[in-house]
Amino acid sequence: MAVWGGLSGLPGGMDGACLRAQAVRADSLFLEGIRWQLAERPQMALDAYAAALAERSDHAAACYAIASIKAGQQKWSEAVVYGEKAARLEPENLWYKVLLAQVYRLTMQWPKAVETLGQLRGMDSSNLDFAYQQSDLYLVQGDVASAVRVYDELERMFEPCDEWSMQKYRLLMSRGLVAEARAEIEKISAYVPGEPKYYEILAQMSSKAGDYASAYRYYQKILALKPDDAYTYASLADYYRKTGEEEKALAALTRAISLPGLDDDTRLTLVSTFFGDRQGYEPTKREVALYAGLLDTLLQMYPSNARLHFVKGLYDWQHDKTEQALDYLEKSLRLDPKAYNTYTVLLYVLQAAQDWPRIIRYAEAALRLFPESTVFYVYLTLAYYNADDCANSLVYGEQALKRLPYVAGPDHDQWGTLLYGCVGECYFHSGRYTDYMRVMDEAVRTFPDDVLLKNNYAYQLSRMNTRLEEAAHMARFACKRSPNYYSFWDTYAWTLFRAGDYAAAYAAVRNALRKGGVKEAVVWEHAGDILYHLHKTDKAVDAWRKALELSGQDADTDTDTARLKHKIENRQWIEQPL
C-alpha cells in the first residue's frame, strides 16, 4: 500500500464545526476506499475516494489514490488530472510527485517528467535514482548535453566516481563527441591515478586517432601496473602492427597467447582479430606466415581443440592447400562430431574437390544429427547425381525440394536451380519423362529468369520431340539473355530443327559455331544434321567429319563415334535415340 501523506486538516473559521464534520466524513470515506483497495475491489475504492472528494474537493490523498488506480488501469488522462491536482494541493509531498513523474514518463510527456524529477531531486538530493531517471529522459529527447550535466551536478554534490564518469563517456561517444569523451576519461584518470582501465581506454582512443606515441605511453603505464596482462600485450601488438614493426608485433602477440589465465577460445580470438580485422587491408606474405606460425603454436599447445583445427583447415583451404585443409577439418570433426559449421565447410571443400564418396559419407552423418537442415539434402542430391546414382539422388532431391520454400535469401535460388537441375536430369535419364516435365515445369515457374534451366529444359523437350513451340520459346529467351554463349544457340537450333524450320535452325547453329561451338563435336554434328535436311549432303558430311575429329575429346560413349561413322559412310542422317 502506498504511503499517503496524512489525513486532511481541519480548517477553522466561523463555521468551523461544520467544516470539521465535513472533514471527518471525507476522511472516513477515504479510509473506506483504502479498505476496498486492500480487498482488491478497485471500483468500490474509486467510488469511496470520489465520495471523499465530494465532501472535500481539496482532499489531496484521495486525488493521489485515484491517480494511482487510474495509472494501474492505464487510464492515463485521468491519472494525469488527479496526479497533478494532488501535487498542486500538497507540493511538498514527495510521493505525489513520484507518481506524477511516473505518469508523465509513461505518457511520454518528457519535458514535464524532467521538470518533476528536478523538483524531486531538490526535495531529496540523496536519492540518486531521481538523477538517473532525469538523465535518461534528457537522452530520450536527444539532449546529450543536459543528460551529461546531471552527472556533473552529482559530482559537484558528492565527488567523481567511476560509474558516473563511464556513463558520461558512453553518452558522449554514442553521439560522436570523441574529444569530450576523452576529456572525461582523462579527468577521472587524474582523480583515480593508477587505474589501468582508464589507460586502456585512452590508449585505444589514441591509437584510433593515429596518435601512436600517446597510445604507446599508455600501454607502458598499463604494463607497469599489470605486467602479465594478455590483453594489453595484444593491444600493444596491434600498435606495433599499425606502426609497421612486424617483429615486435609478433613478439607481443606471442607473449599474449602464452600467458596463463586465458581460455583456448580467447587465445584464438586474439590471433584471429590481429590478422582479420583490417577492412580493405591485404596482409603481407610475412604477416600470413606469422599467422600460420601462431596457429601452429596454438595447435601444439592445444592439440585437442576442435576450433583450432577448424580454423587451420580454413586457413589451408584459403591458401590452396586442399588436402591439408581436409585433414584438419576432418580432425576437427572427430574432436567435435556435432559441429554443424564444420560439416558445412568440410562439405564445401569436398564439393570443390569433387570427392563425391566422402561427401555422401559426411552429409549422411550430418543429416542424422540435423535432420531438418536442407543443405545436407542438397549435398546428397548433388553427390549421388555425380556418382551416377539417380535413385538415391531422387530420394534426397525430392525431400530437398519440399523444404525449398522455407529457405530464404541467396541459398533459395542457388540451391533451387541446382536441385531442379539434378532431379530433372535424373528423371530424364531414368526414362520417367512425365516426372521430368512435372519437375521442370515447376522449376521454370519458380525461377522464370534462369536461362540455364530454360535452356536445358528446351533441349530435352526437343530430344523428346514434344512441346516444340515452348522449347523454342525458352531457348530463344536464353539466347537473348546470354547472346554470346554457343550452347544456348545450339539448343535453339535443335528446337527449330525438330520443328522442321531448317533454314532458321541453320542460322542459329552458325551463331553457335561463331560463338565458340567450333570446338564442340555436338555442335558440328547438329550442323551436319541441319545441312542434310537442307539437301546439302556434301557439306553435311564435312560437318560430321569435324564432329568425328572432336568426338574423341568430348563424346560421352563409343556410341557417339559409331553413329558419326555411320552417317559419314552412308552419307545419310540417322535419328539419335533418347
Oligomerization state: single chain
| First-last Cα distance | 88 Å
Main sheet, how many strands, which sense, barrel?
A: none
Overall form = elongated
CATH architecture of the domain at 194-303: Alpha Horseshoe
Strand content is: under 5%
**What ranges have pLDDT less than 50 throughout 5 or more consecutive residues?**
1-14
On the 0-100 scale, what is the average pLDDT? 89
CATH topology name of the domain at 194-303: Serine Threonine Protein Phosphatase 5, Tetratricopeptide repeat
Q: According to CATH, what is the class of the domain at 194-303? A: Mainly Alpha
Structural class: mainly alpha
Structural summary, described in words:
The structure is a single chain. The protein is mainly α and 578 residues long. The protein has a domain of 110 residues: Alpha Horseshoe (Serine Threonine Protein Phosphatase 5, Tetratricopeptide repeat), CATH 1.25.40. It is built from 31 helices and no strands. The radius of gyration is 40 Å and the shape is elongated. The termini are far apart.
Task: Name some characteristics of this structure.
76% helix, 578 residues, mainly alpha, Serine Threonine Protein Phosphatase 5, Tetratricopeptide repeat, single chain
Task: Please give the structural blueprint.
Elements: H1 16-38, H2 42-55, H3 60-72, H4 76-89, H5 94-106, H6 110-123, H7 128-140, H8 144-157, H9 162-174, H10 178-191, H11 196-208, H12 212-225, H13 230-242, H14 246-258, H15 264-276, H16 285-301, H17 306-318, H18 322-335, H19 340-352, H20 356-369, H21 374-386, H22 390-403, H23 410-429, H24 433-446, H25 451-464, H26 468-481, H27 486-498, H28 502-514, H29 521-533, H30 537-554, H31 558-570
